[in-house]
Amino acid sequence: MLDVGCWLLDVGCFLVSLSTELAFTRVAGNLVSLMSNLSSDDIKNALKAVKYPGYSRDIVSFGLIKEANAANGAVSVSMLLTTANAEAAAQIKTDCERVLKALPGVQHVHVEVKQPAAAPGAAPAGGGAPWANQNRVPGIKRIVAVASGKGGVGKSTMSVNLACGLRHLGARVGLLDCDIYGPSIPLMMGINQRPGLSDDEKMIPPTSHGVKLMSMGFLLNDDQPVIWRGPMIQRTIQQFITVVDWGELDFLLVDLPPGTGDAQLTLCQTVPLDGGVIVTTPQEASLGVVRKGIAMFEKVNVPILGIAENMSYYTTPNGERVEIFGHGGGRKEAERLKIPFLGEVPIFTEIREGGDRGVPVVVSAPDKPAGQAFLKIAEAVKQKFS
Torsion angle, CA of 22/28/31/32, rounded to 10 degrees? Predict the structure, then answer.
């Protein structure tokens, strides 16, 4: 009887051992399966948790990841930084290893961080900013971005009238339309012609009302849509700045699209901006998004020249003042943030008509109230650099 009991105990132990082994094999098989299904995109998605040191954006959105592979429990990642800052590279490497080791089934991690060689005798790079490769454009004294963070606030209307206003004040001005998907500058400036080509194969920007212009609208046929992903947008904006013969300019204004995405980031990485003009309407719905645009400029060390409030109020034919979108929100926000308030632009029919006809109100009626509103903002911007 004892022998039978011992035999049953041995069988029970064997079955428990077999069950445990089968469970381990099943788990190991699942991990191997997970690893075999781990794609380059999966690795990059995981690395979106790694922020560039000192910034809120991740290393993937900056385009730093060049290769990402996984096989047999090992993950290999290669990236190329734009700065020779060793501290930034070390932190990125450590953070990447931490994130990748947490992935299911990953046993070995190899992270290669490549950097450009520092110039002989150069001081160590401070902060390792992704826009360390910014370059001034020869001949352009100042580059000023006109932004809002939100669509529908009249930013392009502000851009064309501000450009024409600065020209009216005697400055040499260029206007770059960075809204690749919805370019409106050609319509508002009353010109739609292909750029010329110089002897050194640079695009010659068309000119209207004394302002040099470049826009995606000059390169499209009628209502042809632009259906591009981010890299194409980035490349186009870089070329609009560096492959255009802007000549000698006191100001290059850049009309940015709404948001804080590819266009804004590309501009900041390509050239150093001398300032940003923030356009808003009075209501909180606009101001709430505008704050994000301001925060973006502050993050990349772009000076805020001030806030301009558009559509401040409307005056009826009988003289009654109607504050359709409320009033004073732009001024109050400027006071709260301790940045300049550049001025307010009421709702005038002449402004809309000027945009539709391709003759900005600053050009057609600089002495009328509508034109004067924009000229005061142009004077305020010009004084920032005097």
Answer: -110
Indicate whether 21 belongs to any domain: no
Residue 124 lies in a domain: no
pLDDT digits (tens, 9 = 90+) for 172-230: 999 999 888 889 999 999 999 989 988 888 899 999 999 999 998 898 877 777 777 76
Each residue's pLDDT tens digit, 74-123: 899 999 887 777 888 889 999 999 999 999 889 889 999 988 765 444 44
Q: Which residue has the tokens 């050009």?
A: 363
CA atoms within 13 A on the CB side of 322: 10
State the Cα–Cα distance between residues 161 and 372, nearest whole angstrom: 10
Give CA–CA dist 236/255, Å, rounded: 14
- Distance between CA atoms of 185 and 193, rounded to whole angstroms? 12
- The domain that contains 162 carries what CATH number? 3.40.50.300
- How far the first Cα of the chain sits from its last, in Å, is 107
Range of the domain at 68: 40-114
Classify residue 7: in a domain, yes or no: no
Whole-model pTM?
Answer: 0.66
- 72 and 216 belong to one structural domain: no
Number of independent structural domains in the chain: 2
Q: Say how many CA atoms lie within 13 Å of 235 toward its Cβ.
A: 5
Q: Do residues 93 and 150 share a domain?
A: no
**Looking at the structure, do residues 183 and 307 belong to the same domain, yes or no?**
yes
Contact 174, 140 (CB under 8 A): yes
- Specify whether 107 is located in the same domain as 153: no
Q: Is residue 169 part of a domain?
A: yes
Q: Are residues 194 and 64 in the same domain?
A: no
Residue 100 CA to residue 68 CA, distance in Å, equals 11
Q: Where do runs of H (alpha helix) occur along the chain?
A: 2-36, 40-47, 86-101, 155-168, 185-188, 230-242, 262-270, 284-299, 329-337, 349-357, 361-364, 369-383
Starting at the earlier edge strand, list the strands of the sheet with 65-71. Answer: 65-71, 74-80, 108-114
